[in-house]
Amino acid sequence: MPGLEVRGEWRAALAAAVYALLASAGIFAAGANAALAIGLAIVLLAAGLIERRPPAVDPALGAIAVSFLLLVWASTLWSIDPARTVRGALQMTGLLAAALVLIGSRAPLLRASDMIPRVALLASILGAALAALDFLAGHPIMRHVVAHPDLTGSLDTKFDRGLSYQCVLVWPLLAFGWARGMRGWALASVLALVLALALSRDDTGRLAFAVGLAVLIGAALLPRIVAAALAAIVACALSMPALVAAFAQRLIPAADSIKHSLAHRLEIWDYMAARASERPFGGWGWWSAQDLPIRPDELARYRYVTAAGSPHPHNNWLQLWVEIGAGGALLGAILALVLLNRALRLEAGPRPFALACFAATMVLSLASYDLGTDSWWGALAATGLLWRLLPVSAESA
């Protein structure tokens, strides 16, 4: 019916516009990812409720999210800063609800399953190319984005988050381009992103994308062996406090000779892992990392960490351990293995790209971002919906 087609078309146009912005403007203003992704989720939810066709929440992801939120809320009972933990729990409830809604909004976008990734793929080329040009030209674009454009030294780092998110979002777009005969465009997206990363200071993003490319090539030849290696990385992530306790202090001097920020990161991990070992079962309370005590003997051997500490561990797995304990880390591992298994079960065409996406996400989860960062969840949820749409696009090829 024409009326139904019109109702479907506005959703498609809105989703395509949101993904075009995520893949292009999101590189310059990554903080907007949350508003874009969550806003799209709210609109799709409202439309679905009005039409009595709400989004279909993924049962496995929903169960993990509910279990996680129960732990987060329970941690308010023993948190060292209960008021802050309540605020963090409220935020996480909203973020996870929006993520589940967005990932579950596949059905109303089926007719746009070709248009949305096509538009986003082309936008990703434009966004990365503009970022590269901005670096080369002295940031004429970024100066209009940041609040204090006179701080020239910080302009380079303003791209870090956006480029890192792009290292996750790009994989389903590349899989779509490869399946739909847009391989030249897919390669152009890779080249533009590689150039932008090379010009940036985003070491984590470069590492994530390089690992993703290596996994892509390996998974095209030996997908099960690559998947087993990724499962081993998940096991290491689950064991993060023990690994940090065993190796961090030995690695800090060598890291300092390579890059000061790397040594700083290891110092943060060192005292965070020590606090996690002191409260292994319940943690110190959600969003409590910035208030964790640092012992005098630890401060005495640190060069970069001060008594003020760090706002978060810069490692999602350590954050789970230190803030909500072993249960939270175990849920993180279960989520990772569920997603890894789903990637492995995809058809041969998109499978290597999905495994590459998983690997890049694991790298970022091990080295960056607070789990309470709304834009991080926005990028993850937007990527999840693209993967839900991808099989339909591939089947129509």
Overall number of domains? 1
Beta content comes to under 5%
What's the count of strands?
Answer: 0
Structural class: mainly alpha
Q: State the end-to-end distance.
A: 26 Å
SSE string, helices as H and strands as E: HHHHHHHHHHHHHHHHH
- Helix content range of the residues, please? over 70%
- Rounded average pLDDT: 93
Low-confidence stretches: 1-6
Biggest sheet, in brief? none
Overall outline: globular
Outline the structure in words.
By secondary structure, the chain is an all-alpha fold. It has one domain. The protein has 17 helices and no strands. Helix 1 runs parallel beside helix 6, helix 4 runs antiparallel to helix 5 and helix 10 packs antiparallel against helix 11. It is globular, with a radius of gyration of 21 Å. The N terminus is likely disordered.
Notable traits:
single chain; 0% strand; mainly alpha; disordered N terminus; globular; 17 helices; 397 residues
Question: How would you briefly describe this protein structure?
Answer:
This protein has helices at residues 2-23, 25-28, 32-50, 59-74, 82-103, 115-136, 152-155, 160-179, 183-199, 203-221, 223-238, 240-258, 260-278, 296-301, 316-344, 351-367, 374-395. The chain has 397 residues and is mostly helical.
Secondary-structure topology with pairs:
Elements: H1 2-23, H2 25-28, H3 32-50, H4 59-74, H5 82-103, H6 115-136, H7 152-155, H8 160-179, H9 183-199, H10 203-221, H11 223-238, H12 240-258, H13 260-278, H14 296-301, H15 316-344, H16 351-367, H17 374-395
Helix pairs in contact: 1-3, 1-6, 3-5, 3-17, 4-5, 4-15, 5-17, 6-8, 6-9, 8-9, 8-10, 8-16, 8-17, 10-11, 10-16, 11-15, 11-16, 12-13, 13-15, 15-16
